[in-house]
Amino acid sequence: MYASIVRQIGTRCRGGMPTAVTAADRRRAAGPAIRVLTVTMLVALVGVFCSEARAARDEQHRRFLVLYSSHSVLSAYVEATEGMKAVFDDTLTPEYEFYAEYRDLERFPGPDADRRFIEEIYARYTDLRLDAIIALGPQAIAFALEHRDGFAPEAPVIFGGVTSASLEGLDLRDGFHGVVGAFELAGTLALARALQPEARRVVVLTGSAPFDKAWRARAEEEFAGVEGLAFDYVSGLTLQGFQELAAGLDRETILIVLTIFEDASGRRFIPGNAAGRIAERSSAPVYGVYSTYVGVGMVGGVFATFESIGIAVAELALRVLGGKAGASEIMSAPATPVVDWRQMERFGLDVELLPASAQLLFYDPTAWQRHRLEIMLAVGFILAQSGMIVALVVQDRRKRAAETEVASRRLELAHLSRVAQLGELSGAVAHELNQPLTSILANAEAATQLLSRRPPDMAEIRAILADIAEDDRRAARIITELRGLMTKGPTDFETIDLNDVVGATVRLARSELVVREIHVGTRLARGELPVRGNKAQLQQVLLNLMLNAADAMVELGPEARHMMIETRSRTDGWCELEVRDNGPGLAGELRESAFRAFSSTKANGLGLGLSICRTIAQAHGGTLAFEESGRGARIVLALPPR
Amino acid sequence: MTANGDVAAVIHVVDDDVVVLRSLGRLLAASGHAHESHASAEEFLARRDPERAGCAIIDLCLPGVDGLALQSRMAESDAMIPVIFLTGRGDIESSVRAMKCGAVDFLTKPVAASVLLGAIERALQIAAATRAAGREQATFDARLALLTPREREVLDGVVAGRLNKQIAWHLGVAEKTVKVHRARVMQKMNADSVADLVRRVVTHASPRHWT
């Protein structure tokens, strides 16, 4: 798969360095750095074991001198050397010798430095029988032409890394072979068509200089036979005119920029710069035939790469050594499609459409392309986790809804149980209400009779009316308290006096307890005992505890039926309400099970009372539990500080 | 003082609620009744004068000794006065029990003055009748105590419907002796006739007189 290769190579080329990638890389796993190292080591080894190698030499043992125009770390030379080595490694057995020399006039200029270089070459290679000299770059070719006869007159020279323009004026005599760079118009168009299969129109831009005009003429000639595409040749515009034209094109058009040395206004340009300025504005992908256009905004084109030059040079050298070449064979460098990956991205061109031999420059794969598996795993994990979170949230919502439901049901149950309890107390309640009513009626009738006397006892009548009013208020108080107990609805918590709760509840149950012949004693904490709570609910709890205590003492004689209600505040700020009775008490295991719903020791009990009481206690943040006592049962309601 | 020499009947009110006590007291006073208020059954038992005629209005629901228990205690102590129960609860069970124990009436609170006063009137009549009956009995008992053992034996024979000669034979005395004893019995018992004598004995005599 192509994509997988791109990915593999991409991981080797970090840091955004322009890096060439080809399908040939498939065969070589080692990175460029390793390859450079290998070459260097090889050269060193060859130097060290030079004499031995010479002695052991046979017919198949080839010895090459590679002359480079420039210095050794130039990537062009590294790539070219790679290409040569690949060919020699595959072809020459068992081994070959490879000498490398760098003329490097840029860094060591002047006749003295060059003279020392020349002397060194003579000194080293005059006695060494070289099979061939490979010259890369114009300076190296010039050197070979001038000095080859001096130190290795029989060695053929194979050159590369030049264009035909560089060769002009050079005396290429017999024994000089070479690979010359060429311009691949047709190949570039083929690349463009491969990347833009939907394109129907080609626009070709050329400048106004004679050289530019020559390019236009050549393009018109080469593209004459191409079918399925309409060609527009545009020249005679200023650079701005070219830019506007390019900006107005659509994405389906192929824009080929040849050379613009000079525009219609007479301004002169370096063609690469001009091409770059057009490409940066262009709405259509830009192609060209010069490798210098790569990296300035052009999508790509077909050129000879240094690696392909290296390969071609090595193959030519082998042909020359094998006697299969002519006296002086000059061939064109094989061109390769080269594209700028960033521009591919810019125009949304599909990498999959590239020919297998294409070189991808500036390849910077996205995180997705680099780590697809990891990202997919991470996304999968995150999705799973999110799913889980959503599920948990939903579950939590449901749980809360259920809890709310349960709470509201409990509230309802507490209310119903309270109403039921009041029903149980109806006799007592009626008694409490009837007392003031009795008094009112008797007072009123007494007053009526007093009024019929002559003279009526006005002081007594006034006292009677005051008593009537007081009794009426008393009745109203009782009704208010009853309403509080009967009312359903939101249970508002407020600050209430626990002693007040005891007072109101004992009042309400008094007549019931009298009827049951139960003596109720209270021992209340001095002053107020403020707690945060709902009075009706706390009254309900106390009423329940009192009735339980009363039930527990039913078997005793009336004299022994004593119940004690006590309130107190603890040192930690909590308030306690305790109800004690003289009944049989609860065995250890019953003290807890008594709080379970539907657990009752009474014949007619539902067994909800204590369960509801504990729920109420917990809703107040408090506790309700039986505690150890010498005789009877002792139950304590503890409430947190306000 | 009434015609038969008694102090005016007193009406006892027993209720643990002072407000009710006060209002009922006013009503009774306004209606011309003497009354005494008691906050509990114990207080009532301790303070009342058993000799004085009257009746009691008792709240059923009293702390400590409740109304019904109070009623039974009075019955036990032989110092029974008619009782009117008042209740604010109005449950059937206690009213049935109260009536079985001989309550004059069972009234629910709040009670109308006419109803209460009517009940008090009835109770006082019963009280008066009871006291009259009590007095008759006391006279009878006193007269009976005057008889000698022989005269008692003769009285038993007369009440049993025996003839003089049957009594004489039974006692082993002469018929004439029986006649003398019989005349003395009639005189001591203040009986107008034999029929009157028998009625008095049957009405007032209890088995304990004859053991």
Number of helices of chain A: 21
* Structural class computed from helices and strand pairing of chain B: alpha/beta
How would you sum up the global shape of chain B?
elongated
For the terminal residues of chain B, how far apart are their CA atoms? 39 Å
Structural class computed from helices and strand pairing of chain A: alpha/beta
Strand arrangement, major sheet of chain A: 2-1-3-4-5-11
Can you summarize the main beta sheet of chain A? 6 strands, parallel
Number of strands of chain B: 5
Please give the radius of gyration of chain B in angstroms: 23 Å
Averaged pLDDT of chain B: 84
Number of helices of chain B: 9
Relative helix content of chain A: 40-55%
Helix content of chain B: 55-70%
**In percent terms, what proportion of residues of chain A is strand?**
15-25%
Write out the strand line-up for the largest beta sheet of chain B, numbering strands in chain order: 2-1-3-4-5
Description:
The complex is a heterodimer of chains A (642) and B (211). Chain A is of the alpha/beta class and 642 residues long. In chain A, the strands form five sheets. Chain A has a six-stranded parallel sheet with strand order 2-1-3-4-5-11, with helices on both faces. In chain A, strands 15-17-18-20-19 form a five-stranded mixed sheet. In chain A, helix 10 (239-247) packs parallel to helix 11 (271-281). Chain B has 211 residues and is an alpha/beta fold. Chain B is 55% helix and 12% strand. Chain B has helices spanning 18-30, 41-47, 67-76, 92-100, 113-146, 149-159, 164-171, 175-188, 194-204; strands at residues 10-14, 34-38, 54-59, 83-87, 105-108. In chain B, strands 2-1-3-4-5 form a five-stranded parallel sheet, with helices on both faces. The longest helix of chain B is centred in the middle third of the chain and has 34 residues, at 113-146. Chain B starts with 9 loop residues before the first strand and ends in a 7-residue tail after the last helix. At the A-B interface, helix 16, helix 17 and helix 18 of A face helix 1 of B.
